[in-house]
Amino acid sequence: MNDTAKVIRPHIPPGRRVLAISDIHGNLSFFRGVLEKARFSPADVLILVGDLFEKGEESLNLLRALLELSQTHTVYPLCGNCDHLDLIFLEGRPGIDQALWPVFRTWDRRSLILQMGAELGLHPRGPEDLPQLRAAILEKMPREVAYLRSMAHILQAGKYIFVHGGIDREEAMESLPAYGCMKNDNFVGQGRKFDHWVVVGHWPVTLYRTDIPVARPWIKADQHIVSIDGGCVLKVDGQLNALVIPDVTQEHMDYVAYDGLPVVVALEDQAPSQDPLNIRWSDSVVEVVEEGEDVCLCRHVSTGREMWILRHYLYTRQSDGLTHTEDTTDYELPVHAGDRLALAAQCSRGYLVKKDGVTGWYRGQIKGNEE
Fold it and tell me: What is the dihedral of CA 173, 175, 178, 179, to 10 degrees?
């Protein structure tokens, strides 16, 4: 495997619509849902901006669906850091089985490699079983392996550059380290500015906000960066975004999203709360102050702020023995009676909902679910 970036520059004619989707993570139903909302057709171009697989129980089914879709549509898959794990496993570098086994074991049924093994009747119990699994996949699944190996790291077309994690520069991109293009945490926060629009995934958009949870694409005009990872699979209120570019020679963009959540209708107005807090996985240590039936009053250790958190969001992390929470917020959304809200959860203290890609609490009354 080449350790420098593979860059492709396909010709996409002006006026041909482009959809860019990142971080599907093996969620086939979300993938189909967002394509349907975008009215994706053979006239369009689909760019998959990495992390297509792993962490989702439909990773192998998604791979098969992409193989079929590529027969009738123009699809360019790019490699993300999760997809890279599958590739280096198949390559069989020395020591890779011992290194990757803890990852595959943790993901279990959500691992593409183990899903492949299960279909072949192989269920490895340790790193010593992985060479047999590798040999079987290479022999029995050549189409799937070829698709994985076909993925580039960077796609450049018109005014746009697509890459999973990020880039350090726009020139001589073929000499960039491949892994740095796939895994580049906090890319927007690094302050880089580009001439092209650089479209990235990898880092869920909500991680950039300490105040409110936002999952819709973040278009940073001052930096020419678009971050599109909506937290699909990783977060209960996550969504799969499709960035819609009507013409790669122009700078206009829009998006559609799919989150699979039921929709309810608000019956009362609600004003937004002031000074909200968005607790994210990178700063998620809390202490339980008071326990309720379905929520707990918790103190966020780093800020000292207290908020009610859904009980099932709390867990103990083995690495530090501390209580952590899934991404959560105390933000109360601005809502007007008649607004349609996506329902993520409900409890004794209200409804956790989404509106226009923003998650927050609604304390008013709702009426029935509408699909």
Answer: -100
pLDDT for 95 equals: 94
CB 154 within 8 A of CB 171: no
pLDDT for 318 equals 86
Q: How many CB atoms lie within 10 A of CB 68?
A: 9
Q: Report how far Cα 65 is from the mean position of its chain's Cα atoms.
A: 18
Look at the block and give the residue holding tokens 């619509």.
17
Q: Above 70 in pLDDT, residue 2?
A: no
* Phi-psi region at 344: left, alpha or beta (left = phi > 0; alpha = psi -120 to 50): alpha
Give dist(CA 25, CA 110) in Å, integer: 9
CB neighbour list of residue 55: distance below 8 Å, 6 or more residues apart: 25, 26, 82, 107, 110, 233, 234
Tokens of 50: 């990495």
Task: Give helix then strand counts, H and E, for the chain.
Answer: 8, 23
Element (H, E) at 310: strand 306-310
pLDDT for residue 215 is more than 60: yes
pLDDT average, residue stretch 200-215: 95
Task: Locate 289 and state its tokens.
Answer: 């102050």
42 neighbors 73 (Cβ within 8 angstroms) = yes
- Token couple for 309: 């958190």
Checking if the pLDDT of 105 tops 80, the result is: yes
Distance CA 171, CA 175 (A): 9
Please enumerate in sequence order all residues whose Cβ is within 8 A of that of 40, keeping only pairs 6 or more positions apart, or say none.
Answer: 19, 46, 73
pLDDT score, position 370: 47
Alpha-helical segments (H) within 203-301: none
273-305 per-position pLDDT tens digit: 999 999 998 899 999 999 998 999 999 999 999
Tens digit of each residue's pLDDT (9 = 90 or more) over 310-334: 999 999 998 899 999 999 999 999 9
Q: Which two tokens stand for residue 28?
A: 């086939």
Sheet holding 18-21, edge to edge: 74-78, 45-49, 18-21, 240-245, 254-258
Whether the Cβ atoms of residue 325 and residue 183 lie closer than 8 Å to each other: no
Q: Are strands 74-78 and 45-49 parallel, antiparallel or unpaired?
A: parallel
Asked if residue 241 lies in contact with residue 257, where contact means CB atoms within 8 angstroms, the answer is yes
